[in-house]
């Protein structure tokens, strides 16, 4: 069964590539019973497609490899992406934080459009079709599953995050057998677990503008406490650098802030500090107890040493990272096919002509806010338009 091009993986990158690439005869092979399952989960089902602003500002949101994908982001940029969807009937909406969503807030609208355009472009979709073999024939064409032949194959299988959606890294061994270098996958955009986590009873409490430091990296953003880990954007965006033994430091109040004077104040320490510092009451109680302070004592009665200990917990709460909550709760994957293996303008493998790698299968992971979907779409677009 001969095809012009075969896309392996019916997720965001693969479907956008197909929706951008007319063919005489193309085939999309999807492992799951239906395509786009991870896309349907994005943005809690609302599908945070991309971010507004200059594409130049995107580069810093992909860690150390961001500068390497500059040309792809510029070519398939966020303005092009937004125009693509609006011109095809999916109206978009910008949130106050710059995140771009479909106006309907339904990821299914995005998926349905990509499937419709892919079909119009000549692509056939086959679900329930996992790929267990991939080889290049002597004439340069590719044989997939010992059944399908194509002049070009596009790998769009994602990484290892949310494995129940089919993104489980099963194709990496096949790519390694073809001679491609694979950077060991690890969870990204994932909550961090720490030794002696003290906030298990405060799950759901969140903070704005927390400053987090991790092994020389520093970010400020929202923090979320879960029953067993630290989460929220500031943690998720730092997670790409985390490893067991890393030191995590959290500042819950503005960096230049000092504790307010309680001289003459008759309020209890718990009430005084939670109100004056605008901190959640249950969290303030926990910090006071960690500092050896009974929450019911009068704030004005606290000694200088007690206040100094309390302030240290608020401004430099220090933990040792033990790991992450794993791929099952990771929004993205760090690692994958090494960027050195592909031409980053077309995403064609340098040493295997006709084989393309796009999206999360590559060693690229972005911050929260639509950056991972943007790269999936940008790389898919570049592979589609390589001719």
TrEMBL record:
Domain RsdA/BaiN/AoA(So)-like insert: 186-330
Annotated ranges, domain RsdA/BaiN/AoA(So)-like Rossmann fold-like: 5-385
Annotated keywords: FAD, Flavoprotein
Top-level taxon of origin: Bacteria
Cofactor: FAD
Calcium listed as a keyword: no
Coiled coil (UniProt feature): none
Classification via InterPro entries: BaiN-like (IPR004792), BaiN-like_dom_sf (IPR023166), FAD/NAD-bd_sf (IPR036188), RsdA/BaiN/AoA(So)-like_dom (IPR055178), RsdA/BaiN/AoA(So)_Rossmann (IPR057661)
The protein's name: Aminoacetone oxidase family FAD-binding enzyme
Organism for this UniProt entry: Zhenpiania hominis
